[in-house]
Amino acid sequence: MTMTNAQSITNGPSSGDLNPKSSSSLALAPPQKGLIAGAAIVSLVLFVYLLVTQPVAQPMLLIIGLLLGYTLFHARFGFTSAFRRFASVGNGQALRAHMLMLAVAVTLFAPILAFGISFFGGPVAGYVAPLGVSLVVGSFMFGIGMQLGGGCASGTLYAVGGGRSVMFITLIFFIIGATIGAYHLPFWTEEMPSMGSYSLATSTGLGYGGAWALSLVLFGLIAWASLVVEKKKNAPKMAPLPTETGWKRIFRGAWPLFAAAIVLAVLNAITLMTRGQPWGITSAFALWGSKVASGLGVDVASWGYWQGDNAAALQASIFADSTTVLNLGIILGAFIASAAGGLFKFTKITPGNFAASVIGGLLMGYGARLAFGCNIGAYFGGIASFSLHGYIWGVLALAGTFLALYLRPLFGLSVPKPTDTFC
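Structure (tokenized):
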């Protein structure tokens, strides 16, 4: 599979992971200064608007979102591709970066959650969700969907910011799936069996210190197991992407996965202290879709999902929704990062990847509502919050990935082989 430099980088989590060229043959393109200036103006206008119309946390979250999108794009930090590489040929490099990210996150989350540390003095709570049929079905569906849709929740946003055209299709149907999932959620949570929530910190008697130590052991074991699998399968290594040297690397070219892992963990902790909850993505998709449905005459307010604490969000401006602001920041941050590398370019949509994006988006949106989050809210945020549901999400999403490896060729999508070189 041959790709141009722009395609291999801009396509990010949905590029198929393959780059047959050596990094030395791929030169960085000149920065797209006009696009950078345009994105900077849009970001500034949005920041000022939020500063004038919303509580001070909202413009702060926009800045955090910009940094998240910038980091995700520069490192091509993926969850979809990490699971696919490991499931197909045993390459666990990105999976180990996940473990580092989670190790830093739990180290930061433990004192924040234990002592209620907040920038604005409000309550602070992690993502601890119930264990039940809803979680099992939803996370498995999400695992399949992200491999067909070409990206996870964060990957969809940063690929949209990078100009990958088919990801706009994934995003649209992600929103539709999340809206349908919100409508059906009371059935899955109230009619299907559930064991309730389980926290390694508060449900075991370990406390946050004990849960932190246990988490580090688990991450170490997972990293070690990935090395064993990698050695046994003689997995191909990830080839370095073209980048600048020295301080210029901050602005142009690829960042090391492990550096990005640390930055993402720190930004998630700052998000927790800013809005009282960890980083999340897909609740905003359900909100956007529900607002559109309401505008079309659907009685969305009567849905069980929009009762209680969620009712106010449906009536308020989307700019009052902290997850929406984070999402907009991610798209803008990824756009700036792609333009800085001279990489923003709309890509071709084929009938195969269009169909896969429709199905994948629907599965991810629906699955994320059932599983109480996506790769960010459930996997990253859940595990960082010491919730057992985050670990279950990861296992079942990986199981969905294995099944999706057999489905991808039906849509003309590639599956990594042991002879491939990864980017």
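Residues 207-233 form the longest helix (27 residues). DSSP finds 16 helices and two strands in the chain.
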